[in-house]
Amino acid sequence: MQTFEPLSNRIYLETPENVRLAFRLAGPGTRLGAYGIDLVVRFTIFYAIAYALSLLQPVTGSGLSTGVFFVLAFLLEWGYGAFFETWWNGQTPGKRALGLRVIKTEGYGIGFYEAMLRNLLRAADFVPFFYAAGFIAAVATPRMQRIGDIVAGTMVVREKRPELKGELAGVFEYEAFPMSEFEHRYRPSEKTLEAIEMLFRRRGELAPARVDEIASVLAEPMIQRLANAERQRRALEMPSEFLFRVLRTARIASTAEAA
Question: What angle do CA 187, 191, 197 make, to 5 degrees?
């Protein structure tokens, strides 16, 4: 279930387990700023490619260098956003710099399909000039979605730095989970950690089977990010232990940063 605050950019998602998560939607202005940063990054990469190919031109010939440049430029133009949003769990360098993240409208992290679809549809957002259609769609929809977001089922939210709240008695009984086991340098988002923490605090009020049932829902998107098939199998068998180990790792990192 989703609810919105009147005259606000906040959206609340309530999971079937009665966990209520709040998100602050990113407006067109902030997203334009992130796009500007990404534009600078892409231009820098373009320039680096062009410079490298110019040095190789005496060896490869102008025709081959030009062809390679256009192929790489095409891949960079259409693959930049999809690559980073898949690799960095919904963030590009620009979004990361401004604290933005792309998530599914259900509150979960996106995958390659959603990242690719929303970025390919930038062409539709661009018409008739400089993202006019995308801007109109963003200001007209409750979740501030451009056309690509509507089709892909995604939205862009503002995300503050994860801050785990209060003491968690018992969390250090769990072995820390090595983040190196995740693909593409994946890190759980603030809202994911918040949901895991809420489940951890309520674990004594629920039957173990119910805890694992809820944990399996929260853990599924993260398990898909695990690089090792054996790790995936074990996490599926013991989802609550998997989540609590991830929570302990986040708690250790939070404590170390505060020191």
Answer: 95
For β-strands 20-25 and 100-104, DSSP reports them as: unpaired
The mean per-residue pLDDT over the stretch 68-92 comes to 88
Can you give the pLDDT at residue 100? Answer: 93
Check: pTM over 0.70? Answer yes or no.
no
Using alpha carbons, select from 107, 117, 94, 108 the residue that is nearest to residue 41. 94
Q: Are residues 140 and 54 in the same domain?
A: yes
User: 112 CB contacts (<8 Å, ≥6 apart)?
Assistant: 82, 86
Same-domain status, 206 and 147: no
Q: Domain span at residue 208?
A: 171-254
Residue closest to 153 by CA, chosen among 192, 187, 109 = 109
Return the number of other C-beta atoms located less than 10 Å from residue 17's C-beta: 16
Alpha-helical segments (H) within 93-207: 93-98, 112-120, 122-126, 132-140, 147-152, 190-202
3-state secondary structure of 165: coil
